[in-house]
Amino acid sequence: MSIYLNKDSKVIVQGITGGEGSKHTALMLKAGTDVVGGVNARKAGTTVTHEKPGTGEVELPVFGSVAEAIEKEGANVSVAFVPPKFTKDAMIEAIDAEIPLLVVITEGVPVGDAAEAWAYAKSKGNKTRIIGPNCPGIITPGEALAGITPANITGKGPIGLVSKSGTLTYQMMFELNDFGFSTAIGIGGDPVIGTTHIDALEAFENDPETTAIVMIGEIGGDAE
Questions:
Q1: Which helix (H) or strand (E) holds 91?
Q2: What is the β-pairing status of strands 137-140 and 144-147?
Q3: pLDDT tens-digit readout, 31-56
Q4: Which pTM value belongs to this model?
């Protein structure tokens, strides 16, 4: 089992044509993620080419909006690789489209922008779960990756991991790779984030195949 992300998740990348978006799209595909396209309003109607294991080269469509990606590809997860000054708009676009899961990787998002986007999601009924910003994302080993976590450092197993520190997420996955993980989530180190330790702990508690949990805070914080 897993939480929030699994092999059936259909992932899009907001910012798929940028340097970081392109690089990590390739790595997400390599990890087995079903990436179905991306979003860049200025390049809507074009495609990007990537290698997909077992398939060879695939042409991924670039859509003008998250709503269009949902309508045409059934996307239910978006990963945002968008520069900080545009991140709030990208988040609001995804929230308006009611995508179920939005993973915001971007570092350096102004706290006011993150707070506005979080409040906007709440005003819309919290139909979009936000992970991040400033986070490595979420991985269900052997099934799907939405973010930048290295997919080759651990396998599937019974441990759930939720961490505020990105690097300690990777370290813990490596240290416990003999056991394996159901899902590992880096929730992000910013003052205002979407999914909290408590949200993730509750979801892991309700997952019958997660039998142990590792929770990691961050130096200087008190969230743990």
A1: helix 84-96
A2: antiparallel
A3: 999 999 999 999 999 999 999 998 89
A4: 0.97
